[in-house]
Design goal:
Blueprint lengths: L2 E5 L3 H13 L3 E5 L2 H10 L5 E4 L8 H11 L4 E6 L5 H5 L5 E6 L5 H10 L4 E8 L2 E7 L4 E4 L8 E4 L4
Parallel strand pairs: 1-2, 1-3, 3-4, 4-5
Antiparallel strand pairs: 6-7, 8-9
Helix pairs in contact: 2-3
Length: 162
């Protein structure tokens, strides 16, 4: 199972990201500050991906970036920050950094990028349409005709692709 480490000091954001990622099929660990991340770096196995807030207590994500990249060379890093001022500078410095996502835009683009990076299908788990329940992958289509149960005619279901 693909493991994601969430490095975020805001408990609500950590809980939101963890809930979404687990529902999407990821294994999730989290730490809430710079020292916690250093301990995790020392004691834990390399995760597949890290969601990194740049402004953390004790030590900032900016300060910790080089330690993270040098210790975990295969880990993909997704920066999730409330400040846009560093967005351009970090994207091109290291190939481990897969993107910068602004918290004010929500988590949708971040989650979509993580799923794309790890090649997970975008799923709709349990769409209720009339009396029918569906599970269907989204392949970037805006509308799909999905079959209904009990012999009813197909209905157009509008799905927003990431």
């Amino acid at each position: 199972m693909t493991k994601i480490l969430v490095v975020e000091d805001n408990k609500e954001i950590t809980m939101l990201l963890t809930t979404i990622l687990v529902k999407e099929g990821f294994s999730v660990d989290s730490v809430n500050g710079g020292y916690s991340l250093l301990t995790y770096l020392r004691d834990s196995k390399e995760p597949d991906g890290v969601i990194l807030d740049l402004f953390l207590p004790e030590r900032s994500g900016i300060e910790l970036m080089s330690s993270l990249i040098s210790k975990w060379t295969k880990t993909k890093i997704f920066i999730f920050s409330g400040q846009r001022e560093h967005s351009e500078s970090y994207l091109f410095k290291n190939p481990s950094i897969r993107g910068f996502f602004w918290k004010a835009d929500g988590a949708h683009n971040l989650i979509a990028a993580i799923k794309k990076e790890f090649k997970l299908k975008n799923r709709v788990s349990s769409i209720l349409c009339g009396c029918a329940t569906f599970s269907s992958p989204l392949e970037g289509e805006g509308i799909r005709n999905l079959p209904t149960q009990r012999g009813r005619e197909p209905k157009n279901v509008y799905l927003r692709a990431p």
